[in-house]
Amino acid sequence: IDELDWECFCATKFAPSTLNTAFTPSHIMPAHLMNEENDKDGIRICEMILLILRNLSYVQANTRFILQSIGILRILVGSLYFRNFMTGKEVRGPKVDRDDVDADNGNSSSNMCLHAINAFYNLAPNLDVTGEKIFLDFHLLDGTLDVTQVQTKTSKTTDTVDIKSYVDADKCGKIHGMGMVSLQIAKNFNIKDEKLTKLPDNMFRPVVKQYVKASMAIFPAFYGLLRVRTSRAVVIGSLEALILMVDNQDNKSIFLHTPDTILHQLVHLLWIPRLGPDSIEYVDPLRNAVSRVSGMKLLGGYDIAVDYEVRDRSVEILQKLTDMSDDLKRRVGRKFVVSQTDDFDVNVVRYAGQLNTRLYDAILPALTTKVGRDHTSQFAAKLLSNLSSVEDNLNGIRYIERKLLRAMDNVTPVISHIISNKILSCI
Please, which pLDDT band fits residue 85 given cuts at 50, 70 and 90? Predict the structure, then answer.
């Protein structure tokens, strides 16, 4: 397996039988797929393993051990390519016509892909793409300690527990045999942040390169996760995990090189209808009973039409990405054109040299929205402020200038201040 391309291998095995996703080229034989028809027991076993890993990730003490296992990381990353979701009549049909046990394996709201996303959501704050924390665990953690005291809640007595049962002593404590090098490592250790400062990369990168590679393998999978249309829970969970990873300063060097395909999809998710054939995980009312009645439906308009849960998270990610560099501001503000190659219909994103009207048209109503998160309007205003700070995007601000002036009557004083002093003042 080490000699195989792990992403392509998992995408092939976990692809749906319909072969309609970005990760499944049309030349893959259906017999090679790991779906309900070919390997029902294998799907169940994989899902149980992912459930166990997800439950373990909820405990903070387990996160370091999970991230230090290359095998577990590969299982989690590989499960992100599962696409054989079951939606519509297969899950919501009459109970006499379906098997609940089989339907749950690929349920769009409970599947191995979603379990892996939830696990990475819990692991995101400790995800180590630099390798410094793993290096410190292997070298500074003393694995030769015999006992540690653990006090139980029921009594005042303390029990001695062998720490070697929790820590692999063969991997840890290597600093004892490094001579004067150990002194340099200890001097450059920041005990508060558990990081190394002013230490050459060539000193610790060769030791942890396999762990860093396994940790960074999660990022390419997000392109396909954000394009899923058969599981709304997967899309929202992916956006939540992305927010935590963007907030982690250790990942800044990665997000500075965010590919255009991710930016294009985030802009696309700013305006996704909540209902109708263009929505995520569409439920056909001719086949299923849909009861989504609310008072806002009688009013109509933007707030009831947009999928605000997807929009709110996409706005937050774009705002935080454009905070990082002027290059990201320029790339987000340009118009994207998606073209297809002759080989297996692979999508390629290119710039058209024009302003991204879809972005500005989708961001503008978010300034005055009354549904969703409270800080969505502020994130939208800050995103426009970031875009206006780059000269290449000033035509986009002029494109919505009149609408911005009209929107100032219906926004909070904080947003009105951002519009007048940080956005309109740039043109």
Answer: confident
